[in-house]
UniProtKB/TrEMBL annotation:
It comes from the Bacteria. It comes from Myceligenerans pegani. Residues 178-245 form the Aminoglycoside phosphotransferase domain. This is Phosphotransferase. Transmembrane segments: none annotated.
């Protein structure tokens, strides 16, 4: 067991579920304590990345995924692993996509390759990735500057994803009129620092869809984080869509359709 665990075991929590985290840790991940989980992670990082895990601040469970905020040498990193074997191939594809976006200058946190070159490692029955922590705060939709930057960034992301040369395995394959989109562009997955967007996080929901649908969904859900979801305020939605249009405009008929889809999302919100 790493020495730091005896003095400072990590916190354990659920990202959004109301389940008991200790019970979820044991039932879903087969660890009897946070200390056991970090001890296992320390061994995996040493064996496959050749590096020493120096500390672990917290563990967070999200469905069948575990996230660990750790320090490795002089780097703050996040280790994330999944127990759900049917998604392992897709997770590897998302890791390759994220690295490709990073190579083209998009603000993402690319996976850090293991010693064998793996971007997403399959080990001990899980699929695990390691990435650097990107400094920043979650996007604030009350700040029009941030909202406009988010609209411009979604347009830039759509342009890049349309050019991605590989196919990402999804429930529905590409079809006419669709392209690869992130499908989860919202405050919980967008970091702001230094006067700009510092990172787009978690592309694991990527799918093939029309741009107009992804833009409308993003506009409606832009302000959502993990709890107490509310629709994005109308002024922020308008600023977001206008900023998108300035970079990668939709035809007028699709822009009208986007507004109608946004209205449907908002109307369907629990009141």
């Amino acid at each position: 067991m790493p020495d730091f665990l005896a003095a400072s075991p990590p916190s354990l929590s659920m990202l959004w579920e109301s389940a008991d985290p200790s019970e979820a840790l044991a039932r879903r991940f087969r660890f009897d304590s946070p200390t056991a989980a970090v001890s296992w992670l320390s061994e995996v990082i040493a064996q496959h990345w050749g590096r020493t895990l120096d500390s672990c601040e917290r563990l967070v469970i999200s469905s069948g995924n575990m996230m660990a905020w750790i320090t490795v040498g002089d780097r703050r990193m996040i280790a994330k692993w999944s127990m759900h074997a049917p998604v392992f191939t897709r997770l590897a594809a998302i890791a390759r996509l994220t690295r490709w976006l990073d190579q083209r200058g998009l603000p993402v946190s690319p996976p850090q390759p293991a010693q064998d070159g793996s971007l997403q490692l399959e080990v001990d029955g899980v699929s695990l990735g390691l990435q650097n922590v990107v400094p920043g705060d979650l996007l604030d939709v009350s700040d029009v500057t941030q909202v406009r930057a988010a609209g411009e960034m979604l347009a830039t992301l759509h342009t890049a994803l349309a050019a991605y040369p590989s196919v990402v395995p999804t429930a529905e394959p590409p079809r006419s009129g669709t392209q690869l989109v992130g499908n989860d562009f919202r405050s919980a997955n967008i970091l702001w620092a230094g006067g700009g967007i510092s990172a787009i996080l978690d592309l694991e929901e990527a799918r093939y869809e029309r741009r107009v649908d992804d833009l409308a969904k993003a506009a409606a859900y832009l302000g959502t984080r993990y709890h107490d979801w509310k629709p994005t305020p109308p002024d922020a939605r308008d600023s977001f869509v206008a900023a998108y249009q300035a970079v990668h405009p939709l035809p007028e008929d699709q822009l009208d359709e986007a507004r109608a889809i946004i209205a449907e999302h908002v109307a369907g919100w629990p009141h």
